[in-house]
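User: Sequence in, structure out. Go.
Assistant: Echoing your sequence, followed by the structure tokens.
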Amino acid sequence: MNVFAERLNTVMVEAGLSQVMLAEKSGCSTASISQYIHGRNIPTPKKMQALADALAVTVDYLLGNEAKEIAEKEFTIPPGMKPITLRQASACLHMADKNVKEGISNGTLPIGRVICLSGKKARILITPEKLREEVGAARFNEFFGITT
């Protein structure tokens, strides 16, 4: 089995996704997903990016070129600000934690990503800039006590 197939299968299991679920999230067919996880075929770059996005990892991770932790580096925290928690993001958005988590997971709320960790554990990373765009700068700054 190739590295791509192994990593795709591992991340699917860690995320608790079936082939059907991954197909729905990525826009690939279930037959294609089966081919990919069994190492019989490799997706096009566009489909590979869709798979990576659906699994909240990078294409380089799926190809074996980086560790999962590198995907977390894109979530920079502004100077003097602590990481934004799911609870804070939910309160800022006036939404339930469950709904925010679900929205981030399925891509309908583009304010962060779910990063798969070992086992079935996952970590939600909120991108401050994306949250600010979603709620507006005034609301974001007021909620987090940022003065400009």
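User: And one key feature?
Assistant: Strands lie at 112-116, 122-126.
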